[in-house]
Amino acid sequence: MAPKAVVLLSGGLDSATVLAMAQAQDYELYALTVEYGQRHSREIHCARAQAKARQVAQHKVLHLELPDSRASALTDAAPLPPAQPGSAIPATYVPARNTILLSLALSWAEALEAVDIFIGVTAVDYSGYPDCRAAFIRAFEELANLATKAAVQDGKKFRIHAPLLDLPKHEIIRRGRELSVDFAMTSSCYNPDEQGGACGQCDACVLRLKGFQQAGLVDPARYA
Amino acid sequence: MAPKAVVLLSGGLDSATVLAMAQAQDYELYALTVEYGQRHSREIHCARAQAKARQVAQHKVLHLELPDSRASALTDAAPLPPAQPGSAIPATYVPARNTILLSLALSWAEALEAVDIFIGVTAVDYSGYPDCRAAFIRAFEELANLATKAAVQDGKKFRIHAPLLDLPKHEIIRRGRELSVDFAMTSSCYNPDEQGGACGQCDACVLRLKGFQQAGLVDPARYA
Rg (Cα) of chain A, in Å, rounded? Predict the structure, then answer.
């Protein structure tokens, strides 16, 4: 019987590739999408399409109320401020986001009697988010093995897989392509139009477009 | 100006005492209650009463959908199984609960520019929950200082305060009494009746009643 894995699936290019990678490793897939008031529903739509394409055993979409949605430009109702390349951690940082997402994934994994959790963070083109670094991932893994009945009583070992951690965007795109990820059904833009078309100008779009260019491919996503 | 603290407030005896302790240390209080499908609303009612009594700066009640509510006897719709004293980690264990609660508290703390988080876990009468131990609390504190912009970019240090960690229940009750906690407005029972009266028989009730007895006090809560 294939081991189960919980895969955090945002609907972006990175997590869609991670889902494909987990499938290629023969895990039974449990995809977890958390809707925490991101600026657009296009991501959720893409997450559903990716989960369907991979025939996951279960796809769960949780709605999460953040303690303070005004604390991030990504969840605030106000217009997104212009990108400031080279500046410190960007305004789209959501306080403790990946800690919350991994906690929910851990809870589900323990309930499923799974020990493998996949997350599509990358530290190369990582825009400076502190919770996308290897040190954070390792610390969460240690925490998971202290926090749970499965680890403490039953001696199981949770593993947090972050297979994109050291990959630049164009390398992620190449891997995704090898695994037949439909990139048209992935959403990266922070400011999509009402039909879900990407703006082509925000940090996330710029990074994505450069990645496709360096991979020698054309981005099939729709731009506004 | 008083420093801000986020205090996890369940509405039970322990967290009500922690709220009073944080107030006695002159923090400005931000109380966080998370409604994750516990078996009764009496706890939320008590949390509101405690927050009001302490005149907190803000009390936030978040509704959280757990990935699998059937994974714990505390959140499952089925009747609670009888207590099995002396057995391993009890059926009321909720997968990764305190990891999730602390993650949400951390998110709010960072948004508030606070670094102090209080949680009412106790490892003495702790029923065996793995996420009520000192090792877990320390690991979460380390994680918080790797996970956040406030720590990584701004050099702040988050502190997770667990002032009840080494206290037996009767000692917690004594401290609470010194700080004028209204124990009538705290709820510990896993199986309250429809009017919120405690059953007097579940693990939590037994522990509570023994604590009052050892403290030489009468529990003012209403029993069914």
Answer: 17
